[in-house]
Amino acid sequence: MAIAVGDKAPAFRLKDQNGVSRGLEDLNGKPLVLFFYPKDDTPGCTAEACTFRDNYASLQALGAEVWGVSGDGAASHRKFVERHQLPFPLLVDEGNKLRQAFGVAKALLFLPGRVTYVIDGQGQVRLAFNAMLDASAHVGQARQCLEQLKA
Question: Is 50 one of the annotated active-site residues of the chain?
């Protein structure tokens, strides 16, 4: 069952590309843009991550943090972060457990889905945007949601 707008986000704790353990409670009430993507260094995922990179300062100005999530390992994430100078952490979702907890469906029957969530400071999901083929739209949707939260 997919997590939907209005639901409480599942509690989680995962390590990022540098072994730093991260969970919602670490954000001290800040909103989180949590984007699930299929795989490091694939064309659509690179476009999505770089769009988040290019808009990171504006998302932070709206009070949010940004974390990416895929089933790739820490070494792959480190290379991806370094190659594209990503300023945000990438969480290692070993066995796709967090993806399953959020109910992120597969796309085209076999690819891990591409879904972006905005989770407010109280842990409530305010956006669940699913668009496999429009990687760059995720940032705009997240920004629009964060602007509404700020208003």
Answer: no
The catalytic position among 9, 24, 45, 81 is 45
Domains, the chain, ranges and CATH? 32-150 (3.40.30.10)
Q: pLDDT value at position 17?
A: 98
Q: Which residues of 62-101 are buried (b: 16+ CB within 10 A; e: fewer)?
A: bebbbbbbbbbebebbbebbeeeebebbbbbbeeeebbee
- How many C-beta atoms lie closer than 10 Å to residue 5's C-beta? 13
| Mean predicted confidence (pLDDT) in 13-42 | 96
Q: Tell me the per-residue pLDDT of 59-103, one tens digit each, with 9 for 90 and over.
A: 999 999 999 999 999 999 999 999 999 999 999 999 999 999 999
